[in-house]
Amino acid sequence: MKFISKIANRFIYIIFLLFPWPVFAQNLVKYVQPMAGTAIATTASALKHGQAADTRFANTIPAVAAPFAMTQWTPETESGETKCVPPYYYKNSLFNGLRGSHWLSGSCTQDYGSFTIMPITGKLTTANYSAAFKHVDELSSPYLYSINLNQYKVNAAVTSTERCGMMQFTMQQADSLYLLIKANSDYHEGFVKVDQQKGEISGYNPAHRIYQGWGKSAGFSGFFVIRFERSLGKTGTFAGDKIFIADSIKNDAGTGIYAGFKLNKGEKLTIRIGTSFTSLEGARKNLQAEMPGFDFHKMVESSRLKWEKALGQINISTKNEQDKRIFYTSFYHAMQHPRLFNDVDGRYPRFAGDYQIEQLSGGNYYDDFSMWDIYRAQLPLFEILNPSLINNLAKSLILKGKQGGWMPVFPCWNSYTSEMIGDHTASVISSAYLKGITDLDAKEAYQILRHNAFELPANRADYVEGKGRRALDSYLKYRYIPLEDSVRDAFHKMEQVSRTMEYAYDDYALAQFAKALKKSADYTTLTKRAKYYANVFDATSGFVRGKHADGTWISPFDPDKKATYITEGTARQYTFYVPQDVPGLAKLMGGAKKLEQSLDSLFEKGEYWHGNEPGHQIPFMYNYTPSPWKTQAAVRKILATEYSDGPGGLGGNDDAGQMSAWYLFAAMGFYPVNPVSGEYLLCSPLFDRIAITLQNGKKFEIICHKPGPRSMYIRSVKLNGKMMPNNFIRYSDISNGGKLDIYLNDQPGNNWAVKPLNQPKGM
């Protein structure tokens, strides 16, 4: 880790030498390490529970992009748009170019609509041109990436805005510079064109669906338009190693355009790139609006200031520099997605459409919701930090439901996917409405969510396409999903117990929305359904368990072995997924003390798997037992062992920022076990002081009072100067601004919040 820190410090020093801007007061961006998560994880839980090497990669990329941007700009070491293979791996040593990417950060999905620009010098070659590099040749930050390509004697750098990128190539010797511009279509449908008169290169790469509807057109393309600071020199097209004298090429393997320039030592070539999901004209408009000139230093500074402002919403005080690096790197990762999808003029591709364009009346439209993951902590984080963003996200989801006829459960690449399980848009939209941070049409939103919860498509073809909840008919008939229903029309087949439990949570979320709208009949029905998790709990074993249609349990049964009726885990791990009703789960187990013992057993056996999201609430569940101090101990251990500041510092797929958001919450001392409730379970903060600047201008401060550096057990808590006996705070406590004083001891506190009266009530 010392080696990584030295390199990082060297990078910052080089940045300030190359780009002499005024020093910003906070300078938080220096702590961000975009390389984190680009190497295989080495944490204990990842090594034990990861099924294969790809599940142990965080699958993040060293992205240069504004927060929640349309396009991420990344070095490319892996060509193509292959599922579960990100554009960049730290282990690789060959550089293929700078990519305009739509990779879902930290995911095991695929890139789409991307393109790559590779600089080479000397003789033109369009095959086997990758350049060897070492990590000391790279400089990586959220607002600037650069690399010295010693093989070609050229430096390549990129910075960005929300929809555009700017690249600069600096010659280290006089030579011919060629840019190879490829549309990375794995379906051989890419198109690129050069217009010498306009001095422009443009192209597109059609997007395709995966999961439900795999391989079908997603109904839009990734479009790009490139403008050059100087007149275009020699140009042509290529397909693999074949070179042509033509101004365009499409529908072939490895297609691209080359553009050549004669440059002297020290000369720079700067290019501007607009991107869009609607059209080439949309890309041109975005470029003109966001990046009208060629001042590279100015764009770098503008991008840097955006990140300083975004990161500056949370200020932490600690002497531990490594913890700062982990914290602000996590913050950066939590601001990659959802993805901005509309042009500057409000045009965007219709959801699940066929190259149809829609027009926004206001706000922004977003996509790439890794919904099974981010409803837990990543979106709740921005309910606090950026309610206006959440408003746009919720309204984007409603638009998808209206345009497609059904609310998508995992909307990515602007299409239905039915990826993963559950129906967690109900949680996101209900939570936002109940917290008063949306101006959506509540009745319309409720009806779209209700459609998913109560009905299935009459047309089987629609269901197969991914519309509607999977296995809803079985869930409603049996009040759980029996093993006889294999859920065959889904990418994740079976997983019946996990589906039952997640639908129960979603029904709870929708019930709260119904209650707020005074829909008493729906509220009563959905509240009953929110208890269906109990129907897959086997009291004799103390775990959830696969169940047949006749009510008998599957046998044999081992709670610590992965099973087809559990999603990506074991029965022991999934038993604790009842975020809406932890006291109810405790009652099934035999009381709060039994819940505590079950939690103890999970941790003692080493069965807690932090790299997978269904367990993220587990360490905080001791707050529902007579020993809340065990939450404080468990969380501190996870913070220390599951996160680090090196390339392998994340213990599993970051999944669009959920793993990172968990760290942010836990390190600040509170976590949303049940996001809809607006309650946050307390633990001991990692830092001496946390100051959160809210969008409304108010501040929420957390002050840690501790007698020594190892103090981590809560003795008492004050909220705005008054003693607070509860082990949770509410959304209003934070959003109204104020101060939370947490007093810590070296030894566990046996009196603070040990009674049910001072703990969340569940249902």
TrEMBL record:
SUPFAM superfamilies: Six-hairpin glycosidases (SSF48208). GO terms for biological process: carbohydrate metabolic process; glycoprotein catabolic process. It comes from the Bacteria. The keyword Calcium applies. Its EC number is 3.2.1.-. Keywords: Calcium, Glycosidase, Hydrolase. One of its GO terms (molecular function) is hydrolase activity, acting on glycosyl bonds. The keyword Cell cycle does not apply. Coiled coil: none annotated. Its cofactor is Ca(2+). Residues 282-745 form the Glycosyl hydrolase family domain. One of its GO terms (cellular component) is cytosol. Residues 31-276 form the Glycosyl hydrolase family 92 N-terminal domain. Monomer. This is GH92 family glycosyl hydrolase. It comes from Mucilaginibacter rubeus.
